[in-house]
Design a protein that fits this description.
The complex is a heterodimer. By secondary structure, chain A is of the alpha+beta class. Chain A has helices at residues 2-24, 30-39, 47-59, 83-106; strands at residues 28-29, 63-68, 76-81. Chain A is 65% helix and 13% strand. Chain B has helices at 3-13, 19-35, 42-46, 49-60, 68-73, 77-102, and strands at residues 106-112, 119-123, 126-130, 136-145, 151-158, 169-180, 191-192, 196-198, 203-212, 226-238, 241-256, 265-267. In chain B, the strands form 2 sheets. A 7-stranded antiparallel sheet of chain B has the order 2-3-12-11-10-5-8, with no helix packed on it. Classes of the chains: A alpha+beta, B alpha+beta.
Chain lengths: 108, 268
């Protein structure tokens, strides 16, 4: 349980980057983003955290969204990166690489 | 817990947020719930509604909002406009009712007692009019509508303290003449009174007629009966309301009772 908490704390710092990275692969919607994160091994991230992050990124102009009718239920909200979002992703990737390199030297 | 129950609890927990923001967040959650497998335990998956909203606020950077402006913004704009419209209409209705209830558009125009056969004498203390016992009695008052709306004059009921039935008259009856134009022109003879509409600016003459019938009654020496008038009460109707307008006489009118042999003296 403690491991899970620690992971979720770590994830909070990089969740924005992870979400941007998932959306960069192609236009997608909230539940699919969650599933992709889980399949990638990022378990423990709360559903509300993902939707809250999407909301914040969209408000900041990093994401654009559109509604599309779904065969299986209500219309889905599809997200895609804006130019600002792509720039944010590049900046985040660079920052993450720097941290990763530094931690690689510190953590055995 | 059903989806609706969960949505309701989250909605309550987000009640401080502006309506549009709350609507968007709830729409996201509604879509998300629709994607989950039907057998999903919502609390196990998402946490309690309180936990979910706390996490959502933290991730989206939404702080708790307080104050009057936040309270107003938490309502749907359409509902706010509707509430404002309802309150405005309600206020206008209340103001209208209060105005109608307070409206008193009648004023007294003048008074006259020029009955044929009566004797008028101007003394130091005013004008004395002596009616003859058994002779005609006439007291006329004019009523003017100085308001902006037509009112219905229902009759003259008496003065402030007396009813006309107390006057020493036999066969009393009310007559009416007019309207009288602003230039003083008079139209029409006196006719039996019936309630009538008095238009703005219009002036009508009301005259109480009868036979003066003050019988000398025994009285202790030095005492005297009298009927005093300082004004008249005019009954009128305005929209749904009927009221009484108290219109003052320009001078006090007293009809004096027996003192000695001259028991039918009117002074004004």
């Amino acid at each position: 349980m403690q491991t899970s908490v620690d992971q979720s704390q770590l994830l909070k710092g990089v969740l924005e980057l992870a979400v941007l990275a998932v959306i960069a692969q192609g236009e997608t919607y909230g539940y699919e983003i969650l599933s992709t994160l889980e399949q990638a091994g990022l378990e423990g991230v709360g559903d509300a955290s993902v939707y809250g992050t999407l909301r914040r990124l969209e408000q900041a102009g990093h994401l654009s969204s559109r509604l599309q009718a779904s065969d299986s239920g209500p219309a889905r909200k599809y997200y895609s990166l804006t130019t600002a979002g792509r720039a944010q992703l590049r900046a985040g990737t660079t920052a993450w690489s720097t941290i990763n390199d530094a931690l690689g030297k510190l953590v055995p | 817990m059903t989806h609706d129950d969960y949505l309701r609890e989250v909605k309550f927990a987000l009640r401080d947020l502006p309506w549009k923001q709350r609507r968007d967040l709830l729409a996201d959650l509604r879509d998300h719930l629709a994607e989950l497998p039907p057998e999903t335990d919502l609390v196990a998956r998402l946490g309690t509604a309180g936990h979910y909203t706390a996490e959502l606020r933290a991730a989206a950077g939404l702080s708790q909002r307080r104050g009057a402006i936040a309270f107003i913004r938490s309502f749907r704009p359409r509902n706010l406009v509707l509430a404002a419209a309802v309150l405005t209409v309600l206020g206008l209705v209340i103001a209208g009712i209060a105005w109608v209830d307070s409206c008193q558009p009648l004023a007294f125009g003048n008074g006259s007692m020029d009955t044929p056969g009566s004797k008028t004498d101007v003394g130091d203390d005013g004008e004395h009019v002596a009616f003859r016992q058994g002779g005609p009695f006439e007291v006329g008052v004019s009523v003017v509508n100085y308001g902006r709306f037509t009112v219905r004059v229902l009759g003259i009921t008496g003065d402030y303290g007396h009813s006309f039935s107390e006057l020493p008259l036999s066969s009393p009856h009310l007559t009416v003449a007019g309207p009288i134009a602003n230039d003083g022109g008079f139209s029409g003879p006196f006719r039996p009174f019936r309630p009538f509409d008095l238009k703005p600016g219009q002036l009508m003459l009301l005259e109480l007629r009868g036979t003066y019938d003050a019988r000398c009654r025994p009285a202790a020496r030095g005492t005297q009966y009298f009927w005093g008038f300082t004004g008249f009460q005019v009954r009128y109707g305005f929209l749904w309301r009927t009221g009484t307008a108290e219109v003052d006489l320009p001078a006090h009118l007293s009809i004096n009772g027996p003192k000695d042999e001259s028991c039918s003296l009117v002074k004004r």
